[in-house]
Every structure is written in structure tokens, then in C-alpha cells.
Design goal:
Blueprint: H1 14-18, H2 29-44, H3 56-63, H4 67-79, E1 83-85, E2 91-93, H5 95-107, H6 110-125, E3 128-135, E4 138-145, E5 160-162, H7 167-175, H8 181-189, E6 192-195, E7 202-210, E8 216-225, H9 231-252, H10 257-261
Antiparallel strand pairs: 1-2, 3-4, 3-8, 4-5, 6-7, 7-8
Helix pairs in contact: 3-4, 6-9, 7-8
């Protein structure tokens, strides 16, 4: 690995640095600017959340760029406080990245992201669709869309339930890695069905919602009266419920579960 002293510091004007294209290329100035922004963003998104610091060589490997290029861009990002460099040359995300994350959370419209997906699920099944978040061993209904089949779910937004009762809680426990044969079967199937477990009159099928890097955000559930929702009917609704869980994971993006939890208090 080349010594840090061999690399020249970046130019004083960031614009000149961001027009440096890859070696051996002759892109137009406008294209070089766009490519440089893409390379800088690649460095910022190389941090997967499982590590505090990344060595220069690992940043280069994850981004597919040469180490001198990574170093130049990292120094510019550090000058803007998007990165912080440790004494041994390793890098971590800086306070400016945290500030942007907080702005994203503050401006994120949860209703606009979640409600259309729940409405689509409810329209596909005719039953009530709900999105649950969790804290510790409790879950709460953050949002719900009533079905058109006639008898509505008895769950109200804001109600709190234990994770070990009902499919919506059990899929969260399984997604969090809780041990046990039941949790292992849930993880293998990708959904879970319960009838009369939490409420003797209700039945449901649920799937866990995962966000960025597989972080567990909660669960989505299709629910209705136990007389109408037989095991075979719930199994038929499972694919639509799993699809809704995937769509919610994409819609919520990098929204941390703590931000979702901040909307309710167990």
C-alpha cells in the first residue's frame, strides 16, 4: 500500500478536483463533473453500517477506484465534514453525513410512503392491511387500511401488542433472529399465519419489513375474521403480503427503525 506522503493534497478549489476524470479518459468537462460526483457518492455509500472505520484499501476495493483517486475525493469530503480521517489513515462518516440523515428523516412523509402500499394490499385481498413497528417485546399498529370485505379488523392505530401473540409480532421476532423451531420455519417461509392466537375472532398472515442492509423495521399484516380467513385463504394472501413487505422496505429506504419508533410510545 503506498504511503500517504506520496499522495499530493487535493487542489484548494474543489471544482478543479471534481473535474479530474479517470486516468486514460478524455471525457467532456460536463461528463467529468457528473462522474466525479458519482465517485464521491460511491465513497459515502461504501459504509455499510457494520463498521466504524474503513481503511483506504477497503474503500478502494468497495468502490472499484484506484487508491489515489479515493484519497483525493476522501480528503475533499473530509474538508466538507462528510468524512473523518483517523490517525492511521482509516475513514468514517462525518457529522455532515449525520446532518443530512437527520434532514432526510425530518422531511420524510411516512403517510405518503406507507399508505399507498397498504391500500394496494387491501384492494388485492379485500381485508384490512396494517403496518406494525416494534420496541423491545412490543409492537404497535402505526398505520392501517380497512378492507372492503365487510367485517373490519378490530385493531386500531396506536394499539400495542406483545410480539409473541399474532403473526405480525411473530414475524418480527423471527426476523430479529430469535431462536426456536417456529422462528426458523418463519424465516424459511418468509411469512406466518395465525388464527385466533391473539384474538379468538381474528386471523392474519404477516411478513417482516426490512429496510437498508436488512434492518428490521416492522411487519405488514393482512387480517380479518377467523370465520372468513381460513388457513388456505390466508396462504393465498401470503404472496401479496410478502410483496407489500418488500415494497415497504424499498419505500422506507434507509429510514432507521428508531425513527419509526419515535412516532409512538409503548
Amino acid at each position: 500500500m503506498p504511503q500517504q506522503s506520496r499522495f499530493k493534497p487535493p487542489p484548494v478549489t474543489p471544482k478543479r478536483l471534481l473535474t479530474d476524470g479517470p486516468e486514460g479518459t478524455s471525457a467532456r468537462p460536463g461528463d467529468e463533473n457528473v462522474a466525479a460526483v458519482a465517485r464521491a457518492l460511491a465513497i459515502l455509500t461504501a459504509f455499510e453500517g457494520d463498521e466504524l472505520f474503513l481503511p483506504l484499501a477497503e474503500l478502494a476495493r468497495r468502490t472499484g477506484m484506484h487508491k489515489p483517486t479515493v484519497l483525493r475525493l476522501a480528503r475533499t469530503l473530509a474538508a466538507a465534514r462528510f468524512l473523518v480521517r483517523r490517525e492511521d489513515g482509516a475513514w468514517r462518516l462525518g457529522p455532515a453525513a449525520g446532518w443530512m440523515g437527520s434532514r432526510y428523516q425530518a422531511q420524510f412523509d411516512l403517510d405518503a410512503a406507507i399508505e399507498p402500499i397498504l391500500r394496494q394490499l387491501s384492494a388485492a385481498t379485500g381485508e384490512s392491511a396494517s403496518f406494525f413497528v416494534f420496541e423491545g417485546n412490543l409492537r404497535s399498529c402505526l398505520m392501517r387500511c380497512e378492507g372492503t370485505a365487510g367485517v373490519h379488523s378490530q385493531i386500531r392505530s396506536g394499539e400495542v401488542f406483545p410480539l409473541d401473540r399474532g403473526s405480525a409480532g411473530r414475524v418480527i421476532s423471527a426476523a430479529l433472529g430469535e431462536p426456536g423451531d417456529l422462528n426458523e420455519r418463519i424465516r424459511q417461509r418468509g411469512f406466518h399465519i395465525t388464527r385466533g392466537e391473539r384474538n379468538s375472532k381474528m386471523a392474519s398472515v404477516s411478513a417482516a419489513v426490512r429496510g437498508h442492509h436488512g434492518a428490521v423495521l416492522g411487519s405488514v399484516s393482512t387480517a380479518g375474521p377467523v370465520e372468513r380467513l381460513t388457513a388456505s385463504v390466508l396462504a393465498r394472501y401470503a404472496p401479496a403480503t410478502v410483496l407489500a413487505a418488500k415494497q415497504l422496505g424499498l419505500a422506507l429506504g434507509a429510514m432507521p427503525s428508531t425513527a419509526l419508533r419515535a412516532t409512538w410510545h409503548p
